[in-house]
Amino acid sequence: MVGISDYNIKPNVEKELLLNQTNFIEAIKGTLGTSRRHEFVNAPEKLPALTFTFEMPPNYTGKSIVVLNGSRVYELIFAYRKTVDYTAAMQKFLSSFEITK
Q1: How far apart are CA 64 and CA 34, in angstroms?
Q2: Strand partners, 66
Q3: What is the pTM of this model?
Q4: What average pLDDT does the chain have?
Q5: Is 63 helix (H, G, I), strand (E, B) or coil?
Q6: Residue 71 contacts by C-beta under 8 Å, 6 or more apart in sequence?
């Protein structure tokens, strides 16, 4: 799943990335796993991004990437049941994302 938010102003980068992570974890009543700040390479740009893993009841796990591009925020989410290994499918989905004009 991919969500998009547009703002009338350019949000504070660090605050916005962390708020998206916090809001998502709270909305799913989940638990945060790892969290890593990095740059999302969308040639020729390098955009601020945050990747985190999560677990959510009753038996799901997943990964999300939040990317900030000016006043637009993208959030990619891939969740799956822990009983099946979807790691390859998750990586394929997350790495396929690109921002076009």
Answers
A1: 10
A2: 50, 75
A3: 0.93
A4: 95
A5: strand
A6: 6, 7, 8, 9, 10, 11
